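Invent a record, attention on tokens:
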Amino acid sequence: MSLHPRPFLIGVAGGTCSGKTTLSEKLAVLAGGEHLALIKLDSYYVSSHDTPFVDRERMNYDHPDAFDWQLLNDHLAALAAGATVPVPVYDFTIHDRSNEVRMVKPASIVVVEGILVLWEPQLRERFDLKVFVDTDADLRFIRRLKRDVAERGRTPDSIMQQYLETVRPAHEQFIEPSKRYADVIFPEGGMNEPAITMLLARVKELANP
């Protein structure tokens, strides 16, 4: 495969547990790692090593200020220039970056997925295709409740409190309004097989010019 002069960048946004991660990971598997590099916004939460754990628990992780936008933009610029980048590995059980990094190699297609990837102006301008995964709030909450209990060691009460205090307000203030920047809106994300088929056709076209 001959690499493009610069990668084709796809931004996949949407509310918490909307299906954007499922959609992006399916594309990555179907396209192949040699063709598609997947970057997750969750990896770019600001490092808070010096913040006590009890304070980290109270932080608003759905607000734009929670993310290191400069590092993410720097990494995308490096990938576009043909460099491999050390993407942080975030540990949700401690609300902080781990000591590990994931080396991401350049590819002809780069997918960036996360709740706010269509919100940040500099990042948004990099995308050749902007996708918003649109899923009903009640379904997203149920998915989040099940995920955070099973995978992140949270209690149902803490999940509901976080959802009401920070997740829902941030969705209404930042995430939902960013939908207007999308080129394509997909209901149900990774469960929407026709949408995946359409997007995969475009990805295959880019991966095999």
User: Anything to note?
Assistant: The domain at 8-207 is CATH 3.40.50.300 (Rossmann fold). Residues 33 and 179 are 28 Å apart (CA to CA).
